[in-house]
Each structure stands twice: as C-alpha cells, then as structure tokens.
Design goal:
This protein is α+β, with helices and mostly antiparallel strands. The chain has 4 helices and 9 strands. The strands form 2 sheets. Strands 2, 4, 5, 7, 8 and 9 form a 6-stranded mixed beta sheet that branches. A 3-stranded antiparallel beta sheet has the order 1-3-6. Strand 4 and strand 5 form a beta hairpin.
C-alpha cells in the first residue's frame, strides 16, 4: 500500500505543468544565447545581432578494425628453396600458400632485395594457383643490373595499416650468367 501511494504521488507530480523559471521572465540570459524582453520595441529588435546557430558535432567515422589473424597463421613458401641458383636470363618463379581467404583490404606483396635495396615488385589479391596457392614470376628484365645475390619475401599487407600484418621467411637466391 505505501508503495502504491508513493507511485501515485510521483505520477501526479509528473503531470503538473512546469512553471517558467524567473530567468526566463526577467530577460536574463544564459551563456551564448540572446534573450529579448517581452516589451522590447521592434526598432530595438532590428539592432540585435542575429542568434548564432549552435554548432552540431559531426560524428567521426568509426575506424575499420584491422584483420585479426589466427595465432597459427603463416605464409608458407613453397619455392624456390633457400639458396637456389638461377640463370639471370630465365624467369624466376615464386610459389607460396595461404589457407585463409583474403579480405578486400589485404594483398600479398612481393619484395625483392638486391644490392641492399628493397623493391616491391607487385601484389596479388586472390589465389592464382588453385584454391589457396599463389604464384609470381619475376621476368629477366626485372633482374637485369642486380647483384648476383638477392633475397625475396612475401608480406601480407592491409590498406588499413602502415606495417605488414605478416611476413614470410626471407629466402636467398643467386643469379648466374647473363649479368
């Protein structure tokens, strides 16, 4: 019974009309607002500055989360083996696997390092050798002028990150002839 009486009283209080505050009737102003007294002549109203619009905050877009990789995720290089020797006059073919689908913002980037200079040769955004295999061929023209010793590496990169999400092992290769 006391709880019912309390709820009835609270309900009645909420139904009562709200009374204007003294600040509203006296022409007092709050910060950033211009109040006009009810008996202000229209000539005086013309000299008042226009009310300023309250700026609304534009919500920032929420950042797209970086892909989370499984703890056992690894780029598996298939070939050529580390320390392989190739003719500089023939294409150099690289093979690797990745068991997961790539997101729209991720690619595999192919890097070649020679003479201490690293260069990105290109990128693949989908498997091109079966369901989860990847293949990249470096043409002899891309190898021209490089030192005999070079290294290559595959990196999983995202357009949402500045650093690679994952890198493969680095493999060495030696070029002979045709230099």
């Amino acid at each position: 019974m006391p709880l019912g009486l309390l709820l009835l009283c609270l309900g009645m209080i909420n139904l009562l009309p709200t009374r204007p505050t003294p600040e509203t009737n006296t022409g007092g102003s709050s910060e950033g607002a211009t109040a006009v007294a009810a008996n202000t002549p229209s000539a005086a109203l013309a000299t008042l500055p226009p009310p300023s619009a309250t700026p609304t905050a534009t919500p920032l877009p929420s950042p797209t989360p970086l892909p989370t990789l499984p703890p056992d995720a690894a780029i598996t290089l298939l070939g050529p083996p580390d320390g392989s020797v190739f003719s500089a006059a023939a294409p150099l073919s690289l093979y690797w696997t990745w068991p997961y689908p790539l997101r729209d913002d991720t690619t595999f980037a192919i890097y070649l390092t020679a003479n201490g200079v690293e260069q990105k040769l290109g990128a693949l955004s989908e498997p091109n050798l079966g369901d989860n295999g990847y293949y990249w061929q470096i043409q002899p023209a891309d190898l021209a002028g490089l030192s005999a010793d070079l290294t290559w590496q595959i990196r999983l990169e995202s357009t949402l990150a500045d650093t690679p999400l994952l890198t493969s092992e680095t493999r060495a290769a030696r070029l002979i002839g045709g230099q």
